What we know:
Chain B: Residues 2-422 form the Ketosynthase family 3 (KS3) domain. Chain B: Keywords: Acyltransferase, Transferase. Chain B: One of its GO terms (biological process) is fatty acid biosynthetic process. Chain B: This is 3-oxoacyl-(Acyl-carrier-protein) synthase II KasA. The complex is a heterodimer of chains A (438) and B (425). Chain A is an alpha/beta fold. Chain A is built from 14 helices and 16 strands. Chain A has helices spanning 28-36, 63-71, 83-99, 125-135, 147-156, 165-169, 173-182, 196-210, 228-236, 274-279, 303-315, 335-349, 360-363, 370-384, and strands at 13-22, 25-26, 43-44, 57-58, 111-117, 188-191, 216-224, 264-273, 286-295, 326-328, 355-357, 386-387, 402-403, 409-410, 415-421, 426-433. In chain A, strands 1, 2, 5, 6, 7, 8, 9, 10, 11, 13, 15 and 16 form a twelve-stranded mixed sheet that branches. In chain A, strands 3-4 form a two-stranded antiparallel sheet. Chain B is an alpha/beta fold and 425 residues long. Chain B has 14 helices and 14 strands. At the A-B interface, helix 4, helix 5, helix 6, helix 7 and strand 6 of A face helix 5, helix 6, helix 7, strand 5 and helix 8 of B.
Amino acid sequence: MSSEIPATGPAAVVVTGIGAVLPTGRGREALWEAWHAARPALTPYRDPYVRTRKVTHFGHVPEELERLGRDSVPHKLRKFGTSFTFNAMLAAQDALREAGEGWQGIPEERRGLYVAQDDSTELGVAAFHKALDRSRRDDSSQVGVELQRVVAEAFGNAAAFNPFTVIRALNNNTLAMVSIAERFRGDCAAFVQDAGAALGALQRAAFSLRNGDCDTALVVGAGSYNEALKLAGLYRAGHLSAGTHGSDSLRSFDAERDGTVLGEGAVAVVLERAGDALARGARPLVEVLGAVLRPALDSGVGPATLAENARGLLAAHGLRPEDLGAVLADGKGTLHHDAAEAELLRALLKDSRVPVSSVRPVLGTVGAAGPLAELALAPSLFAAGELPPIAHLRTPPDDDTDFVMGAARKRRIDSVLSLHGTFSGFAGALLAKRPYTT
Amino acid sequence: MSRRVVVTGLGAVCGLGLDWQTMWEGLVEGRSAVRAWQPPGVDDFPVKYAAPVDDAAFEARYGAGDGMDRPMERRVRFGLAAAAQALADAGFAETGAPARTGTAVGSGVPERDPYELLHAVGEDGQPSWATLYADRAALDRASGLFCTNDALAAGIAARHELRGPALNFSTACAGAAHAIGHGFRMIRRGEVDAMLVGGADSVLNLPTMTGLLLLGAPSTSELFGNRLCRAFDRDRSGLVAAEGAAMLVLESEESARRRGARILAEVAGFGSSLDAYQVTAPHPEGHGAALAMSRALADAGVEPDRVDSVNAHGTSTPLNDPVETRAIKDVFAAGEHYRRLAVTANKTMLGHLIAAAGAPELIATVLSVRDGVVPPTLNLENPDPACDLDYVPGSARQQEVSVAVSNSFGFGGLNASLVVRGYEQ
């Protein structure tokens, strides 16, 4: 055991189950393999309701996996959900399965559920188009001519809309659906804050476990950036890659980067107090030390302050930056975000020579599921003793940060700090370590 | 570490008024913000009543404020105004905010402009990126906050330089209550010294109201005019939608006393739960609601028989009101204490602010404790036999309120309860 890493005490918060439904496939192993092989899961953008050449690639959850997600949902609940809710429910099932049967002995009232969800995608162009299409079947020539009348017709015609449109649009939809399907009746919260939502959910879940508000906590992150208004807004803001490099277009920290590639997916993790987990025979996979989430660059806070926040998180657990086994950078691939993050890394790591990588070029920017995907990779990092490279990185920033390029870096990894930024002005960090239990 | 948490600042923007003092005055006087309403550009929408914010008055008072002319959703405008009010009310302008001050707000469904949606459909009936993009391109490029669910949390943090944790909760009609409850926990356990907490929402747009209508949530009745919101009444027929925002400054007792701040009341406990029953209906026996209340009381270390008043969720829907009544009777069963509770439904005057609802109702709960007055439940003219508590019908009641509970329950079976008590050193 590394002398810098303290043993996992009975009150420590550990992960005992992980489920993932991502562009890389089902499960954390699929994500690890894709990252390790530098094999991007970013494919040509497809959506029946959006025709565009401006969004070229996207991290779609494979269609067959999406079908599997839908099939995994009890039939009576399907009408209330969307595809990304179904992804979340499949991920939750997988996480609970890995956590073992013992968790089912925990009373329903003591099971906490904390959800991170992306902005709604239901009350958008697709839902409106479907309604409009149905409402004007008898009079199709009027579109765009008498706006007011057409709008009134579309919205006045109740039969044109799915009656559960607003339920599907609610950003707590995942919370409600998972609670019903998996019988969680305890403490709860749901967040919508881009990638920051998962940090908030993890933070509050760990807090509730430590303070006895629940005895197990399921944290679920799910969503999709595939909504026309959202895509248009992010394109307009200059955040999206032009797709010149095809599926290799997300080029974190590279001099040739020109924007991010968005995606979708869901990750779920089961958290427990280590003592409880061991008592019921579960195997701790990762220890969650903590998370921070703060207003960031767009709110006038610079990288130095964010580095200070991350350093504070480390110090709270007796760690210094040089003690870290690896840093997983966000690496969205936009000019602005990566430049700011590179500065943050410089300020945080200085001469520590801690290696920095990012899964983003392989996975894409997946919103609320993002930080949980990084957490899901931690057990593989601990087990493999190597840090995969940042795919496609040829020309890194000219500074002292040790970006891993080309081949995986062999190294014992006991602790991982992942960094996260959002498009809406928040930044945060998540600190996890290898669980040492006796 | 377990610290006491006190309320030191309030802010509100709603149909009853554009500050918390006017809102409270309205609640105590039994004024209703409900009035005839139709969505912009539509004159035959089936929902005929709502409780909107007075746009002209809002513009006159807040429209010229710092950056308020930038494109943003209505809820964000209301939320920013309420936040500025609450922070000023707490005296932060004079004393400065504690260094570790964060933000937690509740928000709901994104506001969609139907014309924006319609513009996205081209002449051939297919969604057209070109027109959609043209609309978005017209926006201020620097307006990164536009139309994301966390825009309010980001906006508050940026404008007021609150550098502590910033969280955006989304638990439907319990959103603000969850934000307040988790903010309370963060102060109590020493993560922060103060939190600006609350919620903002506006569902008074065509797409969202259509969605709610399809669920059968809002009343379409025209029988009662602006007396339509009739919580616990036999003739209730659905919620009456509203818009607005409310914010509170919560602070550790030490921080408030160090600043010499005015302390309005103490937030003493928080409980949350899930029904895990149905997406569109509460548990028929109110298990989840009762669990949230019981947890909040246990968290506060308060025996149920010490509670004087309950600020009910009281939506005026056929399902909620009897279920909430049953849950209250369950929690306060010992010695039939429920018979001595003054239960009030602020929504009969404010309308239902959806994700924000818990925030103005907690303000009312705080002021009930401070002033010793319980606002009335309006329009309770023919009590439902299944709703047989003392709902303070008609007019406010002067009475000592030492401890009060505020309830918020959301679609999908998400419940939150908060306990407030008078502050004593």
